[in-house]
Design brief:
This protein is an alpha+beta fold. It folds into 3 domains: 55-66 and 259-307 and 322-352, Beta Barrel (Elongation Factor Tu (Ef-tu), domain 3); 70-102 and 228-256, OB fold (Dihydrolipoamide Acetyltransferase, E2P) (Beta Barrel); 104-220, Helix Hairpins, CATH 1.10.287. It has helices spanning 2-8, 29-52, 102-159, 164-195, 205-222; strands spanning 56-65, 68-72, 77-82, 89-90, 95-99, 225-227, 232-235, 245-246, 251-256, 262-268, 280-285, 292-300, 326-333, 346-352. The strands form 3 sheets. A 6-stranded antiparallel β-barrel has the order 1-10-13-12-11-14. β11 and β12 form a beta hairpin. The radius of gyration is 51 Å and the shape is rod-shaped.
């Protein structure tokens, strides 16, 4: 009976999609390309980073370094003039400060007077030597006359026509004449020895000594002007005050060579396996975040930082703990930075160890 009932019911019509539902859109080729390319790019980037991550080493323990010269006065005295101020750029030979020259000018005048006196003494010695020669000639004539008189007295003594006193007097006169010749010859020899010139300089020693003292006085006078030994920027000028007493050898001002900076990067010892001199480097500075400067490895330190410290580490104890050491590496700049560098600025250095050294 159920079959009859089902036979009487009309057959179900097929369900057709409603016109209100949106049609299914097909995926375009661009969307498919993007969908597949993004994962491929990410995989490639990760693979490249994994392969190239060992091609460079970096450290942020790096600082800008510049040559610094501490300038000190070579003589003592009171400062009478200051020619620079802090931060000023100077060239080699520029006046930094001047010490009171008056005491040293007096020393030069005294040395000149001593030189003149030595030259006068030299002239007197020359005249004395000439006088000694004259005295020798006169003494020889006196000896000849005394000898003639003695010979006459000796002849008369043999004939008994003179006295013993007259004979003895003539003999004494001969002895005195001979002594005067010896004295004159000694005076002449002394004068000639004082007139003698030194074998190395060809000058009289007294005159040469006076000339040396005058030159020393002139050198001391010249040192009253303290000039820059090289170009750079002036720093630490707090002691440069007019009226300040300077002590010889005490640093008075510092010159920083800002034209030739370099970077001292302290790399871990574990970073040095592939590092070589000449490898390129990229330097960034904390003070100038957008500045990148190219450089290269100039030198690798001969010892670690602790090796050259004032108190090196003593590891011969039972409490020894191994610490990774730092080695200073000098990085030379290959280009002039767009911003002026300051000594001591912090930097970050990346050395490309995968490239060939220069």
């Amino acid at each position: 009976m159920s079959d009859a009932v089902n036979a009487n019911q009309p057959a179900a019509s097929p369900i057709t999609p409603s016109s209100d539902q949106p049609p299914v859109q097909k995926r375009t080729w661009k969307q498919s390309l993007v969908m597949f390319s993004v994962p491929v790019i990410l995989i490639a980037a990760g693979l490249a980073y994994w392969l190239l991550s060992g091609g460079s080493v970096s450290t942020d323990n790096a600082y800008v370094k510049m040559d610094k010269v501490s300038v000190a006065a070579e003589i003592g005295g009171r400062i009478t003039e200051v020619g620079v101020k802090d931060g000023q750029l100077v060239k080699a030979g520029d006046l930094l400060f001047r010490i009171d020259p008056e005491p040293y000018q007096l020393s030069v005048a005294e040395a000149n007077a001593a030189l003149d006196a030595a030259k006068v003494d030299l002239g007197n010695l020359s005249a004395s030597a000439h006088t000694s020669d004259i005295e020798i000639a006169a003494a020889k004539e006196a000896l000849a006359f005394a000898q003639i008189n003695f010979d006459r007295q000796a002849a008369l003594m043999e004939k008994g026509f003179t006295t013993k006193a007259a004979y003895d007097a003539s003999s004494h006169a001969v002895a005195q004449a001979r002594e005067k010749i010896r004295q004159a010859q000694a005076s002449a020899a002394e004068a000639r020895s004082k007139l003698a010139s030194g074998p190395s300089s060809g000058l009289n020693p007294a005159v040469e000594n006076a000339q040396v003292k005058r030159e020393q006085a002139n050198v001391q006078l010249k040192r009253t002007e303290v000039r820059a030994p090289n170009g750079g920027r002036v720093a630490q000028t707090t002691r440069l005050l007019i009226g300040q007493m300077m002590v010889a050898g005490v640093p008075a001002v510092t010159l920083v060579d800002t034209a030739h900076p370099w970077i001292e990067a302290n790399f871990k010892e574990t970073d040095l396996a592939n590092m070589q001199i000449g490898q390129p480097a990229h330097i960034r500075f904390d003070a100038y975040p957008n500045l990148v400067v190219r450089g290269h490895v100039a030198t690798i330190g001969a010892g670690t930082g602790s090796e050259f410290s004032v108190l090196p580490a003593q590891n011969a104890t039972g409490n020894w703990v191994k610490i990774t050491q730092r080695v200073p590496v000098r990085i030379a700049l290959d280009e002039a930075p767009a911003r002026e560098l300051i000594a001591g600025l912090s930097a970050k250095v990346e050395v490309i160890t995968a490239s060939k050294p220069r």
